[in-house]
Amino acid sequence: MLQVSAPESGGDSDSEDALLKPAEVAKIVRLSVKTLANRRALGSGPPYRKLSTGRGGRIRYPKVALMAWLDEHRVSTP
C-alpha cells in the first residue's frame, strides 16, 4: 500500500479540507509535476481546483479528494 506522508509546506495541510500544491501531490503519487499536469489536461488525474483564471492559474488539489482518488485507483493483486 502507498504510504502518504504530510506535505512539507507549512499551514494546515493535515486538515481534511487542505489544498495541496501540484508539487506536493506529485510527491505523494510518485509522479513528476509535468506528468501530473499532463494527466490533469487529459482528465485522468486526481480532482483539482483552479483558483485563478488563465493559463497560469493556480492549481490546488483538495486533500480529501486526492485520498478518495487514490482509493478508487487501488489495484489488488491475487
Number of strands: 3
What is the end-to-end distance? 14 Å
Q: Strands of the largest sheet, in order across it?
A: 1-3-2
Can you tell me the CATH topology of the domain at 19-72? Arc Repressor Mutant, subunit A
The backbone outline, from C-alpha atoms, is globular
Relative strand content: 5-15%
Largest sheet: 3 strands, antiparallel
Mean pLDDT: 84
**Radius of gyration (Å):** 13 Å
Q: Uncertain regions: pLDDT < 50 for 5+ in a row?
A: 5-11
- Helix-residue proportion: 25-40%
Would you spell out the secondary-structure blueprint of this structure?
Blueprint: E1 19-20, H1 22-29, H2 33-42, E2 49-50, E3 59-62, H3 63-72
Antiparallel strand pairs: 1-3, 2-3
Helix pairs in contact: 1-2
Question: What does this protein structure show overall?
Answer:
- The chain is of the alpha+beta class and 78 residues long.
- It has a domain at 19-72: Arc Repressor Mutant, subunit A, CATH 1.10.10.
- It contains three helices and three strands.
- The protein has a three-stranded antiparallel beta sheet with strand order 1-3-2.
- Helix 1 packs across helix 2.
Please summarize what this structure is:
It contains three helices and three strands, in the order E-H-H-E-E-H. By secondary structure, it is α+β, with helices and mostly antiparallel strands.
